[in-house]
Structures are given as structure tokens and as C-alpha cells.
Amino acid sequence: MFACTLLRYRDDGYDRIWLPYNMPNCVPFDTPLPIDTLGETEFDLPSKVMSTAVKPINGNDSLHLEFDTGDPSLVFYVYMHFAELEKLQGNQFREFKIELNHKPWIGNSVVPIYLNSTTVNSTEPMRGPELRFSIHKTPKATLPPILNAIEVYIVKEFFYKPTHREDVNALMEINSSYARDKNWQGDPCLPLPPWDGLECSYDGYNPPSIMSLNLSSRGLTGKISPSLSKLKSLQYLDLSNNSLTGSLPEALSELPLLKVLNLSGNKLSGSVPPGLVGRQNNGLTLSVEQNPDLCPSAPCKNKKTNFVVPLIVATASLLVILLALVIFWRYKREKKGLEYLHHGCKPPIIHRDVKTSNILLSENLQAKLGDFGFSKFFPVESESHLSTSVVGTPGYLDPEYYFSNRLTEKSDVYSFGVVILELITGRPAIIKGYENTHIVEWVSPILSSGDIRSIVDPRLQGNFDTNSVWKAMETAMACVSPTSIQRPTMNHVLIELKECTEIEMAWDQTGRMEGKVMKSFDSFETNPVGLETKMGPKAR
Predict the structure, then answer these.
(1) Distance CA 490, CA 496 (A)
(2) Residue 174: its pLDDT value, please?
(3) What dihedral do alpha carbons 461, 465, 470, 472 form, nearest 10°?
(4) Closest CA to 333 of 536, 500, 172, 519
(5) Which CATH number describes the domain made up of 26-154?
(6) Cα(218)–Cα(196) distance, rounded to whole angstroms?
(7) Residue in 36, 238, 353, 508 annotated catalytic
(8) Least CB-packed of 148, 268, 277, 364 within 10 Å?
């Protein structure tokens, strides 16, 4: 690439290393506009990389790149990336051809698209001590050629044999069944490390085989894939905390080396097959708890209990999602919450220390906002901010307030956004680890990938409406915008969270109605626990 600094993850989700490259007799240019906003491309190129390019100083010259490999036995694959950065006029046209060692590299000419990337590469590997690329404009082109970025890959030979073919086929079938991971490509075990969630056996002589498969908390739905039984070397299988349904396959008992099978936290039904029950007596560790409709042994008994448990689980999930909303829901009747402090009090009050430990819940889940020791009045209602010393709790502090000492109502909005993220994810504001990570930094890349189920607290076991969670997450991320002017007011937050509540309650009501139909022979009625009737947001 032709930017001034090195780029890699987080700018590049694949953690490719993009190095600055200076070409002789060329001039760099760029654009402040983002690239590939119309959708994700096959190569998922970072916008910061593609927004820079070079062109010849002389408009009639060509671009020349030379790579001295030094080893004629090395094998290469080269990818060139192009994007038009200039808005061309009607009489302007850019088109060029590419040569390798004075011979055509690709058959077709290239016409870069404005603010969208185009990638060209050869389908056959290249080898030789020198690679000389030339990019020439075509006779009908009025503008010189350009180049935004180039990737060069060296083919590595491995001493290990490829992964056992039967295991590879089984994994691809499993991946297809669950549409699980676009990064499961190539050989599962090579190069090291293996695919995410896998552990392989290596002995140096035989092909690697899959010995451990961990798909816990991956948002899997549907039935257990029968292809799992084809992984004959499997010793550990973890499918816990997903939304798998249907019966437990007898074929899993036929895995000869299986030592641990964790199926807890799903929606499986029926009874545990006799073969797996028998394997428990021979050392198999089997975990099937938190599957309300699954009987540990045959025949199943007590159908009444089998109905009540999933309803309670679904109700519990609704309660957790609604905790972020309860603070405001009762405002319309009783005037406890931040929205009232900001817009109902005269003069307005800024709390300055909104955090989960300052939100108290009664036995009926009536939320009360406590600890007003740091609160500030706005002495003049028309003032946009107060200049004051910074107080509050790390992790919840508005970064703009922290650096500028300018306090506004949006400082409370930021803190409440962190609270919403904590309640949805089940994680603290500061996630402890090798390097402490703020919850916003942890959520952002996962949210960008669209994997909402990896964000939600796994203890919910998938029992929530994704539409309500997306809306709640979008509201939370708007609240934690770095600059206060981009954050919503508490009035707007109240409206958004009210809609989240309605979506989630409608989804939960639908589930309960389906349960009532299934339970039509029983007369008792179940209400959501603790809720009163007045309670109304890659390897290539």
C-alpha cells in the first residue's frame, strides 16, 4: 500500500500486514472518502489501505514494480488491488494493462471503479528469481495507470501431511449445516494454529486428525449434525450454550475415542440414547443439563415439568434484557430516572456517577437511581455545559468530559450506554485480562461483524428476540459515541428502549401463547417472574 504508516488488525480483520511502499518516479495521492461502502468484497480490503494510491509523475509513463526473490524455487501468488480515487470528468478515462516480465499477466485490461475496489490476480502460481511488473495505460486511456495496494504470498511446503480427508469432509458438512464460519477454509489443522475451535493430533507420520471440537456459545440452531459422528478420532465435543433442537443422535455413542460430550444449555428433546448412557459407565463424561425437554434416561416422565422449565428460562431471558429498560419505564407513572433529572427537574440535574452499582432494584424489580453525592445542578438552564472537576467511576466516565472538564447531560448518557452494554453482554465495564479492555472496545468489532449472538450474555441461552437486542445495542452504541454531540438525549433513549421493550415482550408473549397451546390440558397460568402487570443494539 502507499499510506505513510503500517496497518494491520484492527484496521484489517484478517490481520494482514500492510507496509508503506514507495515507487520511483511516482506521486502518491489519496481521498478522504471511504472505499467499498456498497458492501463487503471478497478480499475485505481495509478502507485506509484502498484510499491511497500512486500514479506516474509523467502522465504518459507506466508504473514499474520489481521483486528480487533471490530463489528461483520459490512459488508466489500476487494480488493487485485498484480503486478510482478521483471523480472523473466526461472526457476522462482510465484503463491499463499489466505485464509480468514483459509478457501479458492477465488477459483483460483494468478499469478501476470510483471508490470501489477491483482485484486482479493470476490463477497459476509464479516462480523465478525476479518478478517485474509493468502497468501501462491503453491507447484509448486519457489518464495514467494507478495502483492502490499489492499482496504477495509465498507458497510454503509443510512437512505434515494434509488433514485426514474424512475429517475434512465431515467438518465442511458441519460448517455447511450451521453456516457457522466463513473463516473455516483450507486445511483444518495446517498451518498451525488450526481452525478456531479445533485441536488436532500430530504424530509426524500420519495425517493430522480432529481430536477436539469446541462450538460452545456459537449461536448454533437446528438439529445436531449427523456428520459429527464421522469424526472418528474425536475425544472432546462441546456443543453447549447454543439453541440446538431435536433428539440426541444415537450415532454419537459410536465415536470410539469420545471422552467428553457437553450438550448443556440447548433445547434438545426426547431422551438420552441408551448407547450414550452405557458409555457413561465406561468413562464418558456426559453433560446434558439445562435442556428442559431432554430426559437423562428413557422413558421420559413428568411432562408437566418439561413444559414449565423452558417457560421460566424464556421469562428469565426477558427479565435480563428488560433490566436496562426498567429504570425509565416507570418514569411515565412515577417521574426515578435520568430522563426526569435532565428534562423534568428545574433546574436540570446531572448525576455524574451512573453505573450498575448505583441502580437499586426492589423485590418487584422497581429500579431506583441512588448515590447523588456527585450530582450537579445547571444553575442556568440555557447553559450548554458546566466547567467542573472530573468525578465519577472509571469505565463509565464520559471521555469528552474527562479530557475537557466540560460537563453536559450527555455525560450521563454515555454512562448509561455503558450500563446497557453491561446488562446485554453480562460483562463489566472494564474487562480484566492481560490488557484491561473497555466494554465498548470489546463490543465494537463483534458488532461490526454482525455476530449479535456472540455479544449477548451466553446465560440467556439464545432466548431473546434478535430485533430487540439489535435495537438496544444500536441505542447503547449511540450513547457511547466519543463526542457528546453525536449522542442522543435521554428523551430519545427512552423512546428507543420503550420500542425494544415492546418488541421483546411481544416475542415473549408469542412464546408463551405457543406454550399454552401445547399445555392446553393443564389449567394453571404462568406469569413472568418478578414483573408486575403495570410494567409495560476472519482467516483468509
Answers:
(1) 10
(2) 85
(3) -90
(4) 536
(5) 2.60.120
(6) 11
(7) 353
(8) 364
Query: Any idea how long the chain is?
Result: 540
Rounded CA Rg of the chain: 29
Known active-site residue 71: no
> Of 535, 532, 356, 329, which is closest to residue 439 (Cα–Cα)?
356
Check: CB of residue 248 under 8 Å from CB of residue 276.
Answer: yes
- Label residue 217 by pLDDT band (50, 70, 90): confident
How many angstroms separate the CA atoms of 85 and 25, rounded? 20
Give mean pLDDT, residues 300-304: 46
The yes-or-no verdict on residue 494 having pLDDT over 60 is: yes
CATH number of 165-301: 3.80.10.10
Q: According to CATH, what is the number of the domain 311-518?
A: 1.10.510.10
Portion of the chain with pLDDT greater than 70, in percent: 79
**In DSSP terms, which residues pair with 198 in a beta bridge?**
213
For residue 237, give the 3-state DSSP assignment: strand
Are 199 and 171 in contact by the 8 Å Cβ rule? The answer is no
When pLDDT is cut at 50, 70 and 90, the band that residue 81 belongs to is very high
Any idea of the CA torsion for 139, 140, 143, 149, to the nearest 10 degrees?
-70
Domain ranges of the chain: 26-154, 165-301, 311-518
Q: Per residue in 101-135, pLDDT tens?
A: 889 998 889 999 999 999 999 888 888 888 899 99
The conformational region for residue 269 under phi > 0 = left, psi -120 to 50 = alpha, else beta, is beta
Among the residues of 142-281, which ranges form H helices? Answer: 165-178, 274-280
Return phi, psi of residue 424, to 5°: -75, -40
Query: Which grid cell sits at 55?
Result: 500514479
What Å distances lie between residue 261 and 86, 257, 287, CA to CA?
57, 11, 6
pLDDT value at 324 more than 60: no
**406 phi, psi to nearest 5 deg:** -95, 110
**Residue 394, strand partner residues:** none
Q: Which residues pair with 135 in a beta bridge?
A: 63, 98
350: helix, strand or coil: strand
State which amino acid sits at residue 107.
G
Order of all β-strands in the sheet with 130-137: 63-68, 130-137, 96-100, 103-104
SS (H, E, C) 377-418: ECCCCCCCCEECCCCCCCCCCCHHHHHHCEECHHHHHHHHHH
Confidence of residue 327 (pLDDT cuts 50, 70, 90): very low
> Where residue 136 falls among pLDDT bands split at 50, 70, 90?
very high
pLDDT confidence tier of residue 321, bands split at 50, 70 and 90: very low
Q: How many CA within 13 A on the CB side of residue 525?
A: 3
